[in-house]
Amino acid sequence: MSYQTTNPYTGEVVKTFPTATEAEIDAAVAKADAAFRTWRSTPVAERLVVLDRVADRLEADGRECARTITLEMGKLIGEAEAEVALCVDMLRYYVRSAAEQLAPRFLPAAGYGDTDVQLIAEPQGVLYAVEPWNFPFYQVVRIGAPQLAAGNTLVLKHASNVPQSALLMERLFAEAGGPEGLIVNVFAAHDASEQILGDDRVRAVALTGSEAAGASVAVIAAKNLKKSTLELGGADAFIVLEDAELDKAVAWAVFGRHWNCGQVCCSSKRIIVVDSLYEEFVERYRAGVARLVPGDPMNPDTTLAPLSSQSAVDELAGKVRAAREAGVAVEEVGVPVPAQGAFFQPTLMTGIPVGSPTASTEFFGPVSSIFRVEDEDDAVRVANSSPFGLGGSVFSTDVRHAQRVARRLDTGMVYINQPTGVAADIPFGGVKRSGYGRELVDLGLKEFVNEKVIAVADINGRF
Ligand code: NAP
User: Fold this and answer.
1) Which of 22, 179, 271, 405 yields a CA-CA distance of 20 to 30 A from 9?
2) What is the mean pLDDT of the chain?
3) Considering 81, 231, 376, 439, which one is annotated as catalytic?
């Protein structure tokens, strides 16, 4: 494995970086630890000034950052710009909110005065952040903004196909006027997790990625008695109820399954439609998918990007082949995708038995699994049959009806009348094999702080 920028649209290897040695990793941890020693005692308001500068800089350099994202992992340039804008929003969310969220609070406790028992949110130290390529900036800011606001620092191990994005992130934070080492990038091999999590200066790990990566890194964290949070895969249900507005549901389904070329943990991967609407929905959905325009992701007219790499294409093709061999109906849709570049032909799959390997697989690309269900109860049954529990959607013109169905879904997030969203001010995370822990808002901010109790007891009290 090596850290390399390969343009997914052209296949050209643009730049290669050497993998970090043990000594370099040790130096990276030392640097993040040194930064922590200053940062922990920097008043929250001053930390937030640094985050605000990062936001300003990102806003100013948005177009250039977006071009790096598209160059490295192939998403549409408009989506890359939106990703950078979302990062600015996340940073500013904490600039606005973190001081209040981190403020000490007094607890009412029997036998104590009103201000005797305090809960203080203290930072803990260096965190290890392992991040994926599908949102090269968003993922780093999603963990970085709250954790830096809280006073922690990060050693970042980014995905090996987005090294230039990783370096840009490191530089953005380094040049914002805080201590050097708030985010320290390492081009670490997988087995470096043993060294990093075995280091006493590193207090915990936050990983976003596949189940395999999560399980492997969480075991190492557990062995070292350190906390982990895992944001893993998903196969979000997109439920269309009988009273849904069909046209809009179809349009959102096409978007929900194909933005970022289907490579989103919370993509609408399983479209579940009640029997009465099924035929019409599928017909319109097929037509909507067929209208996608594959091409150069830097061209604003393109609506279907390449996948992130040729190996991602090969892996997805293998999963679709297995589904076909298992008897699932597989249909390729739309104009043929270009032969050059990591393109994948949009594909619809129907007739998938609930509980089968195909139904439990995450298809990371423009492959739609469509399920026909009898009614609402059946829709909930199929939705909850997945091993994943990240997000989900319910489409209905009756919001209360949709809310009732939403409560029955075993996931971390449900959006009504839209695909699962990503926003600066709404938390993100899942249950079951989608992982544990939450990122964003005050929930994410508190994941790695020490909520320390300081209680003033009465020395004359009784035992
Ligand atoms: P991946 O292979 O697990 O890679 C994610 C990160 O983990 C990369 O930095 C990768 O490094 C690292 N990694 C992989 N195996 C590792 C190991 N054994 N030890 C240490 N680090 C390891 O994930 P992917 O397939 O590229 O990304 C897509 C997956 O992430 C999907 O399942 C998607 O649903 C999930 N995801 C989840 C969320 C969420 O918030 N829930 C968000 C985005 C993506 P290398 O690049 O060096 O291999």
Assistant:
1) 271
2) 97
3) 231
